[in-house]
Design goal:
By secondary structure, the protein is α+β, with helices and mostly antiparallel strands. The protein has one domain: HIT-like (HIT family, subunit A). It has three helices and five strands. Helix 2 packs across helix 3.
Length: about 140
């Protein structure tokens, strides 16, 4: 497996070198909005410490991230009156991973509403509104 690259985009977000719309943060994890949302409220959860993916993450990193995934999954369901939540996680290029820093996608879902196609940039004003709804659901 390839080594962790400290210059990946999520590492840069953690260092505030690239802007992001942060929704939740604790000592171990960060949740921020996906800029190419496949559903309203689509966000990402990452560990604050370096790891490429599930395959090299420590048990402590995985535990911290999954706690935040669960917390944010509940929040997006409340914020968007969702019927369910999809959690996605990809490992290595052949597994669909594009950014090589462990991350989980959290997407609120509604019955009979398909995900939008991948790769389409979202409207940043709408993304900011969605982030505020999630923050309100967390409080």
């Amino acid at each position: 497996m390839t080594a962790y690259d400290p210059d990946n985009i999520f590492a840069k977000i953690l260092r505030d070198e690239i802007p992001s719309t942060r929704v939740f943060e604790d000592d171990e994890t960060l949740a921020f909005m996906d800029i190419m949302p496949r559903a309203d409220g689509h966000l990402l959860v990452i560990p604050k410490t370096p790891c490429r993916n599930v395959l090299d993450a420590s048990p402590d990193q995985l535990a911290a991230v999954i706690r935040t995934v669960q917390k944010l999954g509940r929040a997006v369901m409340t914020a968007f009156d969702a019927d369910g939540v999809t959690v996605q996680q990809f490992n290595e290029a052949a597994g669909g991973q594009e950014v090589f820093h462990l991350h989980f996608h959290v997407l609120p879902r509604h019955e009979d509403v398909s995900l939008r196609p991948p790769g389409k940039m979202g409207d940043f004003d709408v993304i900011a509104e969605h982030a505020e709804k999630i923050r309100a659901a967390l409080s």
